[in-house]
Amino acid sequence: MGKLATVALILIVSVVVQLGAPASTTVLASTTVLSSTAALTSTAALTGHPPVVLVHGYTTRGSLCEGINLASYWRGAETELTVRRNIPAADVLPVSFYKCDTNGVDITGSGPGTDYPTTRTSGGAHPRAGYTNDASIVQIARDLAWFIHNEFTRAGRPVYAVGHSMGGLVIREALRRVQIRDPAFPPALDVRIALTIATPHTGWAKECHANTQCAEMTPGSRFLADLRTNRRPQGSNTTAWWAMGSEDDGKTLLCDGIPTDSAMAIRGVHLIYVDPCYRHCQYLNDDAQERDAEGSLALRGRHSLAMLGHVLR
User: pLDDT tier at 31 (50, 70, 90 boundaries)?
Assistant: First the structure.
């Protein structure tokens, strides 16, 4: 066992003795002890499964505070990964960036040399430098990139990344900027699997200029033009891309609101549903385990959350 992993295990045992709690409980509850890269490395040695980073989508609250309760937003995905796929809860990380996000791992302000805790904010706690939807997707991608690099890549840990809606654009932009060696981004990211769910890769089916993020996702925007230069950005050790969406008839958006062509506009495995025909957030809630879904061959009958678990297995 490496020196970092040995030190981290000693720390974990110490906390268990002090608190008299099971190790699994301690990993979740101890923000201070397990926030370091060394502790993260030990978890990898014990589980052998890459951490899964969950990146949420766009929201707007009008004059209210933008934010999402990530405990409810990702509940179905977390149950699939931790209960059915046996991935430790400490390795499933829903990240937060809006100023009123709750119950997520705060990535805001990440940059060279930062080593922020990977434990979730609790209760009404909000991100350090939380954004509104007038923050550019590029800024959020930068924070995500530095977070993954500082906490995982530089410690030798690959990650899997899942992005719902705008979250898929955040992941894609993070990898694209690192690949072109943008000096504002870290030198490397080791993302082995990237799954986008209902992501408007070429824009959504409307024009919107209400705020920066809405405008950036409007077809024809400069942001989307830059993204088109690389439809399959790669991490330092190859990234396998998967895209999930629902079928439309080319004229009417029957369910999702994101055109099929837009959701599938990356080079990778395309997961297109016909039945169920999911609405935009329903992908994150269908936990059916029957193999009766209809759509592209790659689905093999799996419903959305079962397919997510299969991709990240």
Answer: very low
Sheet holding 269-275, edge to edge: 105-106, 92-96, 52-55, 159-164, 191-197, 240-246, 269-275, 294-295
pLDDT at 242: 98
3-state secondary structure of 63: coil
Please report, for residues 70, 73, 134, 187, the alpha-carbon distance to residue 62 in angstroms, rounded to integers and kept in the order given: 19, 19, 12, 37
* E strand segments, the chain: 52-55, 92-96, 105-106, 159-164, 191-197, 240-246, 269-275, 294-295
The dihedral sign for the CA sequence 307, 310, 311, 313: positive
Residue with tokens 């690099």: 149
Q: What is the distance between the alpha carbons of residues 229 and 290, in angstroms, rounded to a whole number?
A: 39
Angstrom distance (rounded) from CA 98 to CA 134: 10
> Based on the number of CB atoms within 10 Å of its own CB, is 122 exposed (0-12), middle (13-18) or buried (19 or more)?
exposed
The CATH number assigned to the domain with range 50-311 reads 3.40.50.1820
Q: Are 202 and 228 in contact (CB under 8 A)?
A: yes
How large is the angle between the packed helices 137-151 and 37-47, nearest 10 degrees? 70
Q: How far is CA 172 from CA 65, 168, 189, 195, 235, in A?
A: 26, 6, 12, 10, 10
Q: Give the bridge partners for 197, in sequence order.
A: 164, 244
E-strand stretches of 97-190: 105-106, 159-164
Burial class of residue 194 (count of CB atoms within 10 Å of its CB; 0-12, 13-18, 19+) = buried
Which one, of 152, 141, 226, 202, lies nearest residue 175 by Cα?
A: 141
Counted residue by residue, the chain has a size of 313
pLDDT digits (tens, 9 = 90+) for 255-296: 898 999 999 999 999 999 999 999 999 999 999 999 999 999
Q: Which residue has the higher pLDDT, 37 or 62?
A: 62
Can you say whether residue 274 is alpha, beta or left, with left for phi > 0 and alpha for psi between -120 and 50 degrees? alpha
